[in-house]
Amino acid sequence: MELLAQLIDFILHVDKHLELFVQAYGMWVYALLFAIIFVETGLVVMPLLPGDSLLFVVGAMCGAGLLSFPLAAGLMLVAAVLGDQCNYSVGRYFGPRVFQWENSRFFNKAAFDRAHAFYETYGGFTIIAARFMPFLRTFVPFVGGVAHMNRARFTLYNVVGGCLWVLGVCAAGYFLGSFPWVKANLDKIIWAMILVPGLVVVAGALRARGAKPA
User: Fold this and answer.
1) In a domain, 53, yes or no
2) For residue 120, is it within any domain?
3) Which among 15, 68, 72, 174 is least buried, having the fewest CB atoms inside 10 angstroms?
4) Enclosing domain of residue 59
5) What is the value of pTM for the model shown?
């Protein structure tokens, strides 16, 4: 519980923690940023790390002259792309080994075929949209690997989604982070970045569940 409380505190006060880290360790902050983004996107067991809020805060710190925008954004973009690629590869490697026996209780051939067909048809949009959805951006590339989405198509949309996510959110922080209202309400903005995408996903899931088949 104490570890969870510390993680929540880091997510909600990432601006203060990063500023202290910069003061204490200087350039090592770039390695920390790379590690956080890579782990959040690359390890399916670590979906709770800050993503959107971290990018926004880093952009704001770049706007204030505390960090280099090209270096920070470039490293986090590489981490985001490599993280999704790693997650996809793990799913593609372990999926068939977990489900290798069609008569096992873990394998559902019909479900696997549906997932594969879905990712071949809608995988590109799903991968890009999931970048902006906490939790989903950790699981979508893994499931894409399990469903054996074409690797070349996955890589293309992985790069496109990574650019839109990292550069877009960082740029928003860079240009908006200096406004007094944003500084005064940064905690509320971070909460919005966490809750609003989640509520959109839940609402969409409930709507799809309640929709009657044609």
Assistant:
1) yes
2) yes
3) 68
4) 2-202
5) 0.79
Residue 47 lies in a domain: yes
- Pick the residue with more confidence: 106 or 118? 118
- Please, which residues have CB within 8 angstroms of residue 160's CB and are 6 or more apart in sequence? 128
- What pLDDT sits at residue 214? 46
Number of domains in the chain: 1
The answer to whether position 208 is within a domain reads no
Give yes or no for residue 213 having a pLDDT over 70.
no
Top mean-pLDDT range of 105-109, 134-138, 201-205? 134-138
Residue with tokens 């956080």: 36
